[in-house]
Design a protein that fits this description.
Number of domains: 1
Helix content: 10-25%
Strand content: 15-25%
Distance between the termini: 51 Å
Strand order of the largest sheet: 10-3-12-11
Number of strands: 12
CATH topology: Alpha-Beta Plaits
Length: about 230
């Protein structure tokens, strides 16, 4: 930080590395989550996601109750529990944007703010999002959040503003600079998350999916999700 006048400072900001190649459909990013390794009560992936994307910087609005803030605060990953009605077995797993091949959020967006990149990522253009929240209603995974309050502090890699919808991006800012891991994968101490290119048969995620039986959540919707789960 450099003083340029009394009380005026210039703060250096790390520049995001721009892509030097266009996004193509040569890759499709995806994730396999082994629910047998997900420990009940563990929230490492949630905490890492919030830190990586600046969600931990958001503060409860003045005068808001804890209950209201818990309902409205943005979450890109939620920990959910599924119960097998036949066996009674309860499975704990992380739920985030599933980056569907046929995303309902994109279909219902009236402005094109919800869009799908060539590499399969379902994202939101905050410049054209009008906050109608149609995409939130269309998402069968309850994966999107609405920003209700002004955001004073935010990382440069993940811009956000009041009145916009957002959700998990598979850490797109990492991917665009050449990294091939997500924050949740790096933080998982149980090695329950494998991420990579679904179109590369030699990638770790493709090999893991070939080795382990896995399923989509709400496979009946035929969305061909990029996130799959084992043992549910």
């Amino acid at each position: 930080m450099t003083a340029v006048a009394p009380g005026v400072f210039l703060q250096s900001v790390a520049k995001a590395t721009p892509r030097d190649t266009p996004v193509t459909d040569d890759v499709r990013y995806g994730m396999l989550i082994d629910t047998t390794k997900c420990a009940d009560g563990c929230s490492d992936c949630v905490a890492a996601c919030e830190k990586e994307n600046g969600l931990d910087l958001l503060e409860k609005p003045q005068g808001a109750s804890d209950e209201l803030w818990d309902m409205q605060r943005p979450r890109w990953i939620r920990t959910v529990k599924l119960k097998n009605n036949l066996t009674g077995r309860i499975t704990s797993l992380p739920m985030m944007c599933q980056h569907c091949e046929h995303p309902p959020c994109v279909d219902v967006c009236p402005t094109g703010a919800s869009f799908q990149r060539a590499d399969g990522l379902a994202l939101v253009d905050r410049h054209t999002c009008i906050g109608c929240r149609y995409c939130m209603m269309a998402c069968p995974y309850n994966a999107r959040s609405f920003i209700h309050e002004n955001v004073q502090i935010k990382p440069t890699a993940v811009p956000r503003g009041k009145g916009c919808v957002e959700s998990c991006t598979f850490c797109v800012h990492r991917l665009d600079r050449g990294d091939m891991t997500t924050a949740c994968q790096d933080a998982c101490s149980h090695d329950a998350i494998v991420f990579g290119d679904l179109k590369d048969p030699n990638s770790a995620v493709s090999q893991a999916m070939a080795k382990h039986t896995n399923v989509e959540i709400r496979a009946d919707l035929k969305l061909n999700t990029a996130v799959r789960y084992t043992d549910i």
